[in-house]
Design brief:
Strand order of the largest sheet: 7-11-10-9-8
Number of helices: 5
Shape: globular
Structural class: alpha+beta
Oligomer: single chain
Strand content: 25-35%
Largest sheet: 5 strands, antiparallel
Number of strands: 11
C-alpha cells in the first residue's frame, strides 16, 4: 500500500502517498478521466483528488474549481483543503476548521541554483546550505502561499522564515505572512527522497 504518512489532529487531516499505481487505477476509482496531455501530470491530478476521497469519502471533488489565482477550491462551501505533488509523491490535507496548505518536493539540484530567488541571506544561513533544508524552506513557503490563497506574494519578501527548529528530520518552522501580519508555525519533515511542509 503506497500510503506512507498520515497525521490527524483537531485542525486537519494530512496524507502522503507514493504513486505506484497506473492512471487507470485512479480514474476507475474516481469515475472520470482528465484532459491533461502530460501523463505524469494526469496521474498526479487524479491522485490528488483520490487522496481527498481517501481522507473523506464524501468529499465533493466534482465541485473543485481552480480560482483565477490558481488555487483549487470549492466555492461557497466552507471546505478547506490543499493538494501538492512532486512525482511520485502526492500530499493532501483537509482543514477541519481553518485554512490549510501543504507542499511536497522531491530533491533536485535546481533548487540550489535558484535559492537566492526565494530565500534571503538570513534564511539561507538558517538552512546551512543543505539541499534538504533549502527544499523544506521552499515547501514551507509554497504551503503558506496555498494557505493564503490570494496570490500576489513575493516568496522572498512577503513570507520570511524567522526560525526552523529541527528534531532529527522533523522541523517546526516559524514564519510571518506580511500581508496579514500573521505569525504562523508550520510543520515539516525530510525523508530520503522528499521534503514536505504544512499548516
Amino acid at each position: 500500500m503506497p500510503l506512507i504518512f498520515e497525521k490527524q489532529d483537531q485542525h486537519y487531516h494530512l496524507i502522503i502517498w507514493k504513486i505506484t499505481e497506473d492512471e487507470a487505477f485512479f480514474s476507475d476509482v474516481l469515475g472520470f478521466n482528465v484532459d491533461i496531455k502530460h501523463e505524469k501530470r494526469r496521474i498526479e491530478h487524479l491522485a490528488g483528488r483520490y487522496l481527498l476521497k481517501f481522507l473523506d469519502k464524501d468529499f465533493p471533488i466534482e465541485k473543485i474549481v481552480v480560482s483565477p489565482k490558481g488555487k483549487p477550491e470549492i466555492l461557497n462551501s466552507g471546505l478547506f483543503f490543499s493538494i501538492s505533488h512532486s512525482y511520485p509523491f502526492v500530499a493532501a490535507i483537509i482543514g477541519i476548521d481553518k485554512a490549510v496548505g501543504v507542499d511536497i518536493q522531491t530533491y533536485s539540484e535546481k533548487i540550489m541554483r535558484i535559492k537566492n530567488k526565494f530565500l534571503t541571506a538570513a534564511e539561507q544561513a538558517i538552512c546551512e546550505n543543505k539541499i534538504q533544508k533549502i527544499t523544506i524552506a521552499w515547501s514551507a513557503k509554497e504551503a503558506l502561499f496555498k494557505y493564503y490563497g490570494l496570490g500576489s506574494l513575493n516568496f522572498k519578501r512577503d513570507m520570511p522564515i524567522r526560525d526552523i527548529l529541527w528534531f532529527e528530520n522533523h522541523a517546526k518552522i516559524s514564519m510571518e505572512l506580511e500581508v496579514t501580519r500573521e505569525l504562523l508555525r508550520l510543520t515539516g519533515f525530510c525523508e530520503k527522497e522528499f521534503a514536505v511542509a504544512w499548516l
